[in-house]
Amino acid sequence: MQELINQAVKRLIEIIDSKVSSQKVALQFVLEELDAARHGTEFVRDRIKSFYFKESDYVGAMERSWADVDGDSGPQQFLVRITTELFHALGGDVAAAVRISIVEYIIHHYRFGRYYIDQKVRVASKPLKLFEALACEESLLHPHYQYLLKSENAPLRDVVARWAGGFEDRDNKFNYEFQTTFNSSFWEIYLFQCFKDLDMPVDFSKSSPDFTVATPAGESLVIEAVTANHAHDSSPEWIAEDIKSDGDFLNFSCVRILNAIDAKHKKFLKSYSKLEHVKGRPFVVALAPFEQPKFFMQNNEAIIRVLYGQGIDKNNGFAEVSTPVALKNGSIPLDLGIFTSSKYKEVSALIFSTTATIGKVITQTSLPKDIRCSRYHEQRGLILELRDNATHFETHLDGLQVHHNPYAEYRLPEEAFDRYEITHYYYDVLSGTIDNQQKSYTLISRNPMPSSSAGDASVDGEGY
């Protein structure tokens, strides 16, 4: 059966590539297949969820076809003939399973959906020079930057440089900060690639907040990037040490995250709100946590506490519990649930991710690593995977969360970050409940590890 699939895929690619607009034909072919598959077996309906297409992308696609796709010499009719033969020989369920498998191979070949990686290299008028040597002592270089400099990690440097392609060096200090403090600059570069993937151009003529972007619908947003960092008397995230107890770990995360959001909120009130290009537009805080060793293990637990004052009791069947405060320095109570009142009404939404790390960079290379990850599923709950890097796939946007403030003065347009793999959170003020709109097969966590097959003994960067 695999040989049949391989031959069918090969012939389909030949047919598609013979068309003048082959990429458009390939995409339309896939969308039509998904449009038909949504009426198929339970197995097929679930399989298409893993392809990372929104229903609105493909519903009705069959009605928008043209001859290059659906004509006698098009890919659609070729696949119909194969499916018909399989149906008569082996039955409907087998035919449907083979057909959707063929479609996935086409999706993979043309890098659509779950397999999309933007390889376009963009050029800025004043580009960043992230990996050019600076006149500073080696001891000042951040450990993560030193990891990227290793000779075997040249593919990682290439990916980061591609993310940064088109980023304008506005202040002549970005390169230095990337090499010495790293995390905040890395987070901005990650976000910049997100905006490129979302077709949201950045207006670099505006120096602050960090990003002024235009949505595909022509609306303007202002986005301020910030990281939650370790306290001056605590261990930085690159130190290998035992993780705190669950309660202490999450409490510390909450304190540092709340501190970062509050600082940007105060900055908005003091200065950003007075800028003409900010007035009357949604103001979004984009936050990544790097506040302690194994920070990535918090997933969405800490941010849910900070924004909504809710948590889970892992010792009581994961029952939902109220978490109204976090304790700073073990004694000073800080109010959580900042999106459950109008106190932060100036913040339209919060963008958050624990997966925007060097691990994300690794997944966009062919470096021999093992990737352990967890994914969400609407019926099955948590899906755990352990794959080699060559067969692990996630998009650049996978793992990104957008939390909408119900009290926002200027609401973030829902369509601004409308991608299958981006999880949106909405809080219902009347019921006090969170509407978590995460979709099946999207990323929760990811942890790169030394490759078992390649005999990779290095542990640098593991888990980050």
From TrEMBL:
<feature type="region of interest" description="Disordered">
    <location>
        <begin position="444"/>
        <end position="464"/>
    </location>
</feature>
<feature type="compositionally biased region" description="Polar residues">
    <location>
        <begin position="444"/>
        <end position="455"/>
    </location>
</feature>
<protein>
    <recommendedName>
        <fullName>Glycosaminoglycan attachment site</fullName>
    </recommendedName>
</protein>
